[in-house]
């Protein structure tokens, strides 16, 4: 198959910048791409890199797009190198969107999307509601992000009233004693049946990680506290895999790897090195969807699917994978997309 290829870079400021132990992130930059086959069928894709997680950066993605001819083939798309995982995701999602075909090309095997004939001819026809037009829409639940620090104590209630029951709070941003104090207050006030995820983005020391896991185990053991601490995400930096594997045997509180499994080769390596805990999978930067699908089916990993703060184009493709590959009914890390100010529909129309 061959397609007419067009692309547009974009920049979108977050309504509220995101503070993590990596620093402050206030603008999402990416690329929207459009493939049109010779029947006029259109597929949209999004390249949304997170270079500090190990994907390519925007410049590298733009360089790749610019060197492509106006007509691209399946062969080109399915041989995008592993150094460009966000490009692999964007292009393959767009092929997937063009229509239902069996993919038996290139190095990744995958099954085409059976939702043939879905009209994707204009951007605005894309469903902006992430739950609509998703195959087998199980009862999807979402995790909502709480801001780092004390602000979490105010923000959670609004989100709870909006129906969120799983929250993710960034830690490793402020001094550990301060965050533990806030955590105790959070654990005492969150209602029962609420789940709390703690995401350190690799920012804790080994001692701090032990202190956090020990504290979370105590919250679990305290029958007067009804909140469920679901897991601590990436407590240590990527180079401390062995320490995290050891910690995962020492505490009841689960550990989830995120930055350690950001790209497909990292994901495979951590599995091969014995990780059987939770894998946070960001489809937007992990790479080829068909290769991810095959890995998750074969290895039956306990996956939490997570956003890269993409637009509804990348989100739709990522949620499709999340619905297909989620196990253990874990909430999807694609909380309400309040990260951008302007109305997504208007923004998309202005872009193209
Ligand atoms: O996973 C979620 O709940 C939302 C997405 C999210 O937390 C992140 C997305 C992208 C980069 C990171 O700052 C952050 C993460 O570490 O998981
Ligand atoms: Mg994370």
TrEMBL record:
Known EC number: 4.2.1.113
Sample GO molecular function, one term: O-succinylbenzoate synthase activity
Reactions it catalyzes: (1R,6R)-6-hydroxy-2-succinyl-cyclohexa-2,4-diene-1-carboxylate = 2-succinylbenzoate + H2O
First-tier enzyme category under EC: lyase
Pathway: Quinol/quinone metabolism; 1,4-dihydroxy-2-naphthoate biosynthesis; 1,4-dihydroxy-2-naphthoate from chorismate: step 4/7; Cofactor biosynthesis; phylloquinone biosynthesis
Keywords assigned: Lyase, Magnesium, Metal-binding
UniProt key word Membrane: no
Gene Ontology BP, a term: phylloquinone biosynthetic process
Gene3D superfamilies found in the cross-reference section: Enolase-like C-terminal domain, Enolase-like, N-terminal domain
Binding site for Mg(2+): 199, 233, 258
InterPro entries (UniProt xref): Enolase-like_C_sf, Enolase-like_N, Enolase_C-like, OSB_synthase_MenC1, OSBS_N
Essential cofactor(s): a divalent metal cation
Catalytic residues (positions): 170 (proton donor), 282 (proton acceptor)
Superkingdom classification of source: Bacteria
Record-annotated OSBS enolase-like N-terminal domain positions: 26-94
Domain Enolase C-terminal: 157-337
Job of this protein: Converts 2-succinyl-6-hydroxy-2,4-cyclohexadiene-1-carboxylate (SHCHC) to 2-succinylbenzoate (OSB).
NCBIfam families cross-referenced by the UniProt entry: menC_gam_Gplu (TIGR01927), PRK02714.1 (NF002739)
Family: Belongs to the mandelate racemase/muconate lactonizing enzyme family. MenC type 1 subfamily.
UniProt cross-references to PANTHER family, sorted A to Z: O-SUCCINYLBENZOATE SYNTHASE, O-SUCCINYLBENZOATE SYNTHASE-RELATED
Name the UniProt record assigns to this protein: o-succinylbenzoate synthase
Organism expressing this protein natively: Scytonema hofmannii PCC 7110
Encoding gene (name): menC
